[in-house]
Design brief:
alpha/beta, 197 residues, 9 helices
């Protein structure tokens, strides 16, 4: 099966592509196609054009490629999370971007003040091994725009309508991109209803 270079050509045409590559460090072309396909998918939704957004690149692996791309292409606050992420000096030079070697579920309780400053949060999970419950827990603080390209575990929400797009230009057979919107939940009201029933 021949690979299409379309995503790579579109990525390298960005004015900030050299800065993104420098900030990432080691270049992985397959990963570039996966992450840039996610960026193009995200552009299809209104949230892409919003300014005041807190975004997470969850389960990014050793290199926070998607988070760095987002930091250069958006004015959002970006955090890349993975227990195995390698923090480099080049990462610290990227505006509005930081990396932590934790899982989303481990940092969520400490980020509650940040979450509460935003009505909505973006969570991106590109071939991530996170659990969906970690994303769902954020809905007690804010609505969540959840973009996911599943890998080898099922981290899709159940019984929630979403959108799916298959991008055959990605250099992987894991080429299904999903979007779900998870509204903010009133956990206190839900608890009260459970107690009274």
């Amino acid at each position: 099966m021949s690979r299409s270079n379309e995503l790579l050509h579109r990525f390298e045409s960005l004015h900030c592509a050299p800065d993104i590559i420098y900030s990432i460090g080691k270049l992985d072309l397959k990963e570039i196609t996966e992450c840039y396909a996610m960026i193009l998918f995200m552009k299809r939704f209104d949230v892409w054009n919003r300014k005041n957004i807190y975004a997470f690149d969850v389960g990014c692996g050793k290199r926070p490629t998607l988070g760095i791309m987002l930091a250069y292409l958006r004015t959002w606050e970006i955090i890349s999370l993975d227990p195995k992420v390698e923090s480099r000096e080049e990462h610290r030079r990227v505006n509005r971007f930081c990396v932590y070697s934790y899982k989303l579920g481990e940092v969520s309780p400490f980020l509650k003040p940040c979450f509460m400053q935003y009505e909505e949060i973006v969570v991106c999970a590109n071939h991530s091994h996170h659990q969906f419950s970690e994303v769902e827990n954020i809905t007690q603080y804010a609505g969540v725009h959840y973009f996911v390209n599943p890998c080898c575990i099922d981290n899709l929400p159940k019984n929630i309508k979403g959108e799916c797009y298959i991008n055959t230009k990605i250099w992987s057979d894991k080429n299904r991109l999903y979007y779900f919107y998870l509204p903010k939940k009133n956990f206190e009201k839900a608890r009260e209803e459970n107690v009274s029933s």
